[in-house]
Design goal:
Radius of gyration: 22 Å
Number of helices: 2
Distance between the termini: 67 Å
Number of strands: 0
Largest sheet: none
Strand content: under 5%
Order of helices and strands: HH
């Protein structure tokens, strides 16, 4: 059963257009996750830490 699954994945991975589509979706999901994590934060820079020196 595992060998059959690996053979199916290998057959799918050998198609260039499908591999490109999968990678595009993968990277878009990463970008969406980063936007969800950091999209609502406050990105103003903090005051300088070493002002006393």
């Amino acid at each position: 059963m595992i060998q059959r699954s690996v053979a199916r994945l290998a057959a799918l991975a050998s198609r260039p257009w499908l591999r490109s589509l999968a990678l595009t979706i993968y990277y878009l999901l990463i970008l969406l996750a980063l936007l969800a994590l950091y999209g609502q934060g406050d990105f103003s820079t903090p005051s300088f830490i070493y002002q006393g020196f």
